[in-house]
TrEMBL record:
Keywords: Glycosidase, Hydrolase. CDD domains: GTB_UDP-GlcNAc_2-Epimerase. The keyword S-adenosyl-L-methionine does not apply. PANTHER family: UDP-N-ACETYLGLUCOSAMINE 2-EPIMERASE. InterPro entries: UDP-GlcNAc_Epase (IPR020004), UDP_GlcNAc_Epimerase_2_dom (IPR003331), WecB-like (IPR029767). NCBIfam families: NeuC_NnaA. This is UDP-N-acetylglucosamine 2-epimerase (Hydrolyzing). One of its GO terms (molecular function) is hydrolase activity, hydrolyzing O-glycosyl compounds. It holds the Pfam family Epimerase_2. It comes from the Bacteria. GO terms for biological process: UDP-N-acetylglucosamine metabolic process.
Length: 375
């Protein structure tokens, strides 16, 4: 039986991966454990390690790091602290593979620790572009990884052009789509009436995170978003941002500048978040969930600014700057435009079974650790 160690640093990555992780854990050839790190352990972000525990997955370790003040320096120091802590966890767990998702510092720290312990690294969502620091971190993790689970054919081709071995790059689809549309969904009016909204007025789901290179302008940018919603007279469900540089400024705006018809949450359980996404009249912000998951419901998305720059788009995505007038105009047009078809380039909701198959069957011997460029 192969031991797989998944490292989770935020509510977001665990929510995306939960269905796939359960599928991996259910495979008789695999033994899965999860490391809960970073924001999972912070009360300001909902102590979401409890959701991992409630899922029935085994938590191998909890790794707390400094998250405040939310600056680039704090993020960089935390990567160093987590690298050291992950070495201790991996020495104790002795996994056959470390599984990582995406582009956050927690994943980079885990990849660095794993390669120095001769543990193969399997990376999900590599090969994607975004044009911010996330892209640099994502590609760095890919170059430290030995097995790749790309979401799309385009991403697979890019990984191969980066020099990764073609026989080690699989297209699995995005894990965040697994189980997304399986269960019965409540109606829009049921969901929003229960939340206290006026169902005759439109409701947006708002997720806006800071971009490291633009952290000093984060407060100004979220004010523009809220002003656009106010001008358009939309109601909204807003989630507070991750603990990245610039997030304190965004939180301060939400805490001090109230908007009529806005309900703000630190965290929503995955099932509630998906239900709201499915029936929202639009999503507004810069979250990857707008780029990837929302298309499965045909939810219109106003994707703002540079954070998701160059990622593959579905037909539901409208790119805009963080400009109040532009946001208000587009929200007005969405009200009279038919909802896009629910077609999603990021997969078919079967990523978990593909991940489990490749993790249990792909050779993980000494040969896979001898990485060289394939060109």
């Amino acid at each position: 039986m192969r031991k797989v160690l998944y490292v989770s640093g935020t509510r977001a990555d665990f929510g995306l991966m939960q269905s796939s992780l359960k599928r991996i854990a259910a495979d008789p050839a695999l033994d899965l454990a999860v490391v809960a790190a970073g924001m999972h352990l912070d009360p300001r972000y909902g102590e979401t390690w409890r959701e991992i525990e409630a899922s029935g997955l085994r938590i191998a370790a909890k790794v707390a790091v400094a998250l405040h003040p939310a600056t680039g320096a704090t993020m960089a120091r935390s990567i160093g602290a987590m690298t050291s802590a992950f070495v201790d966890v991996m020495e104790a767990e002795r996994p056959d593979a470390v599984l990582l998702l995406g582009d956050r510092g927690e994943m980079l720290a885990a990849a660095i620790a794993a390669i120095h312990l001769n543990v193969p690294v399997a990376h999900i969502h590599g090969g994607e572009r975004s044009g911010t620091v996330d892209e640099s971190v994502r590609h760095a993790i890919s170059k430290l990884s030995h097995l790749h689970f790309a979401a799309t054919e385009e991403s697979r081709a890019r990984l191969i052009r980066l020099g990764e071995r073609p026989d080690c790059v699989y297209v699995t689809g995005a894990p965040g789509l697994d189980g997304l549309t399986d269960g019965p969904l409540r109606t829009r009016d049921e969901v929003f009436a229960e939340m206290g909204f006026d169902t005759a007025r439109p409701v947006a789901l708002v997720l806006f995170h800071p971009v490291l290179q633009e952290a000093e302008a984060a407060g100004e940018k979220i004010r523009a978003v809220l002003e656009g919603l106010r001008r358009a007279q939309w109601q909204s469900v807003a989630l507070l941002p991750n603990a990245d540089a610039g997030s304190n400024a965004i939180r301060a705006v939400f805490e001090t500048e109230t908007l009529e018809g806005m309900k703000t949450f630190v965290h929503l359980p995955r099932a509630e978040f998906i239900q709201i996404m499915a029936v929202a009249d639009a999503m507004v912000g810069n979250s990857s969930s707008g780029i990837i998951e929302a298309a499965s419901f045909g939810t219109p998305v106003l994707n703002l600014g540079s954070r998701q720059n160059l990622r593959e788009r579905n037909a539901n995505v409208i790119d805009l700057p963080e400009d109040a007038a532009a946001i208000a105009d587009r929200l007005a047009s969405i009200r009279v435009t038919p909802r896009p078809a629910a077609v999603n380039v990021y997969g078919d909701g079967r990523a978990g079974e593909r991940l489990a198959f490749h993790l249990s069957t792909h050779p993980l011997g000494a040969e896979i650790l001898k990485k060289v460029l394939s060109y």
